[in-house]
Write a structure and sequence with these properties.
Elements: H1 2-52, H2 58-80, H3 85-90, H4 95-107, H5 113-116, H6 122-146, H7 149-202, H8 211-223, H9 229-232, H10 238-307, H11 311-338, H12 342-392, H13 396-430, H14 432-443
Helix pairs in contact: 1-7, 1-10, 2-6, 4-10, 7-8, 7-10, 10-11, 11-12, 12-13, 12-14, 13-14
Length: about 450
């Protein structure tokens, strides 16, 4: 009896190994294809890392750009207090020094050390020094940003290829899972069929077993579990024994596929998560690259605006920047939404509103600065005529000629004010809501 049970157990073990091997076939095919895809992914990721090395960190670029803009504004504000000869002299500078500082800032270059060393005004010296530091730091990132266009295109292409490879991997995992699932379903039907056949084989007879043994066997069949070998060894009917063996074989096959199905389901879910992460990264990178491109164009436009000699030309570039700013922040907000970061998205929207207001304010400031400078030149000419008028003493004709010149200058100054009003009104009417805030800031 013991020898018979041992033979049954040995046979069952052999069958278990066989069914495990059969259930493993779809997985082995999957793993072979996935290995090929993983090799491709390793190559693509290495290429992406190499390209990443030449693409500037957008956050660092934006940070240095913001610092440069702020420091440039500080120097400009400092220069407003150095318009007269007395003010320039008190700061240790000449008119040519002031012009040199303005020209260097227009070019986006540092203020020469020889001028920096002459500044005796402590606050203005610090402003100029901070500006020079900001120019140097930002130039390191701006240079990379300007030369990274082709690299970004290649980066996007490789990111697409990585996502395609991840999708292909998911397809392999899904195919393997479906194949195992079908096999499991068939084996489950097989278990039910063999179970029904074994029930019928017993009928109302016991074949050497007790009522408790028969109840135990039927309980196993109802639960889809194997019939214990100790009960099978006691059977006195070969045909019933064979039926139990066939049923147990079906159960073992089903258990092998069920185990493999659980493993395949877990692997598929894990790969689906990897594909989702790759898709998120792909979308994030593309949005970031568009934002970076817009930011680089904005910097170029700012440089062109600095070098323009009329407010109309300056504001043309700033108007382009208003559109580019919308593009930049639209994609940065998209990234925040992809990350489900509502706080970051709200912060970016607030930044967009502020940056938009700053650009519009600068447009009005350009008009104000331009016509103020022109009126200052006229005033300088008037001051010169005042000196000549004093020196004319009793020469009535000469004095009258000087008064006529001053009258013409006054007319020119009024004409400049009228033109400033016209240009300001035109800009104001183009965007009343934001313009109203900007005008109030410029006036203050």
């Amino acid at each position: 009896m013991k020898s018979c049970r041992d033979k049954i157990d040995e046979l069952n073990n052999d069958l278990k190994e066989l069914y495990k091997t059969m259930a493993q076939i779809p997985i082995e095919k999957r793993d072979k294809n996935v290995d090929t895809l993983d090799t491709r992914l390793d190559i693509l990721n290495s290429k992406r890392e190499n390209i990443s090395a030449v693409i500037v960190d957008p956050e660092k670029y934006a940070s240095t750009q913001k610092t440069l803009k702020s420091s440039k504004t500080d120097v400009k504000n400092g220069l407003k207090g150095l318009r007269t000869k007395a003010q320039m002299k008190s700061a240790g500078l000449t008119k040519n020094d002031i012009k040199s500082i303005q020209n260097q800032m227009k070019k986006g270059q540092t203020i020469p050390a020889k001028i920096l060393d002459k500044i005796t005004n402590g606050a203005f010296y610090e402003q100029c020094k901070q500006y020079n530091d900001a120019v140097y730091e930002h130039s390191q990132y701006a240079k990379t940003m300007r030369t990274a266009g082709d690299s970004i295109k290649k980066f996007n292409t490789i990111s697409d290829q990585i996502l395609t490879a991840e999708k292909s991997k998911t397809k392999q995992f899904k195919t393997a899972y479906n194949n195992v699932s079908k096999s499991y379903g068939k084996s489950l039907d097989h278990v039910k069929s063999k179970g029904n056949k074994t029930r019928k084989a017993f009928g109302s007879k016991k074949f050497g077993l007790t009522d408790a043994d028969i109840k135990r066997i039927k309980s196993c069949i109802n639960a889809g579990k194997q019939i214990p070998t100790d009960l099978m060894a006691q059977l006195e009917s070969q045909s019933v024994y064979d039926s139990c063996v066939e049923y147990n074989k079906a159960v073992m096959e089903n258990e092998a596929f069920r185990e493999q199905l659980d493993s395949a389901r877990f692997d598929l879910q894990k790969q689906q998560q990897a594909e989702t992460a790759a898709r998120l990264q792909n979308k994030t990178e593309k949005h970031q690259n568009i934002a970076d491109k817009a930011s680089a164009k904005m910097e170029r436009n700012e440089a062109l605006a600095e070098n323009a000699n009329t407010p109309k030309k300056k504001n043309k570039y700033l108007s382009k920047n208003l559109d580019l700013l919308q593009t930049e922040y639209k994609h940065l907000i998209k990234i925040a939404e992809l990350e489900n970061d509502s706080v970051k998205a709200a912060k970016l929207r607030a930044e967009l509103e502020k940056e938009t207001a700053d650009i519009i304010e600068q447009q009005f400031q350009n008009i104000s600065d331009y016509y103020s400078a022109r009126r200052d030149k006229i005033s300088d000419k008037e001051s010169l005529q005042d000196v000549k008028y004093e020196n004319a003493q009793v020469d009535v004709k000469k004095k009258n000629d000087i008064l006529n010149i001053k009258t013409r200058f006054a007319s020119e100054r009024n004409a400049e004010s009228e033109q400033e009003y016209t240009d300001t009104a035109k800009l104001f009417n183009s965007n009343r809501k934001d313009a109203k805030k900007a005008v109030n800031k410029v006036k203050n």
